[in-house]
């Protein structure tokens, strides 16, 4: 045997058989404190979705109580779309299985992570201008009792909307960089390196 | 999902799972986390295991994929605390048996490799064929041999330097 017969040395590790976590302990791990990236994204998405639903329900009640029912109707439609989007995304996440080949699996996980991060961006990009437009529409309706479309073509209103879009873009960039990247950016970079290396073989 | 599957399939292969997790972790706490996570993911995936592949291939695939996609728990990085603390925080395990010492050294050198090289050398050490390696990792079979030889040489050189 040469001095470093790697396989001979390795055979010694075949004796190590750590205690298996109990079936119950493994089950508890599922939704609770799993370190798996896919499980973690799922958990975060689920938590955020629930928060959104609670906020939307409160918002809907407030709109029904104090505003026109059309606003509440709009919010209900928006919530319906968000529920549909969530279900589609969960279906896609559940299709990612660790028994695929490593390259296939890591590609799926990394594209899920990218999509998850982009979701935040698009959410912000839509939400801030929507709030700005909604606020302006509501304000006009309350002041003059109707929507005057010629008012919206005035430079000050166009400037206002452009500013809202600019704020949304800047804020989404900042948020993505500092917040989401802090939690997932490092792992995403690591996975990209592994994918590149596997592709290069 | 059943407790029987968990016992039958995972229990019998826990040595394989342990070896893979050991190569991707450098302390006992992480090892336990990784080991539990791999067992859990194997158990969760059992419905998709339909005897199409060899059980061991399936176990390697799931274990490697899980190890490569885990988010490590945040711990204070000893490097940030300076060399004195860094040395203190990773006490070398006293190993009397020379064979055990070699194994410990081998693990340590494997952990220094890049993640893909680590996966390849693990499969080589587990005596997987090039075809099986390419199936597990999803790579082309043509360059696996060359790559493995390079990693082997690198590992041997590192081990020579350490003894």
Automatic annotation (TrEMBL), chain A:
Transmembrane spans: 52-84, 120-139, 151-176
Organism superkingdom: Bacteria
UniProt KW keywords: Membrane, Transmembrane, Transmembrane helix
Protein name, entry field: Uncharacterized protein
Taxonomic lineage from the root: Bacteria, Pseudomonadati, Bacteroidota, Saprospiria, Saprospirales
From TrEMBL, chain B:
Record key words, sorted: Sigma factor, Transcription, Transcription regulation
Family annotation (SUPFAM superfamilies): Sigma2 domain of RNA polymerase sigma factors, Sigma3 and sigma4 domains of RNA polymerase sigma factors
Residue ranges constituting the RNA polymerase sigma factor 70 region 4 type domain according to the UniProt record: 104-155
GO biological process: DNA-templated transcription initiation
Pfam families, per the entry: Sigma70_r2, Sigma70_r4_2
Domain of life: Bacteria
GO molecular function: DNA binding; sigma factor activity
RNA polymerase sigma-70 region domain segment(s): 10-75
InterPro entries named in the record: RNA_pol_sigma-70-like, RNA_pol_sigma-70_dom, RNA_pol_sigma70_r2, RNA_pol_sigma70_r4_t2, RNA_pol_sigma_r2, RNA_pol_sigma_r3/r4-like, WH-like_DNA-bd_sf
Similarity-based family: Belongs to the sigma-70 factor family. ECF subfamily.
Alphabetical list of NCBIfam families matching this protein: sigma70-ECF (TIGR02937)
Protein name per its UniProtKB record: RNA polymerase
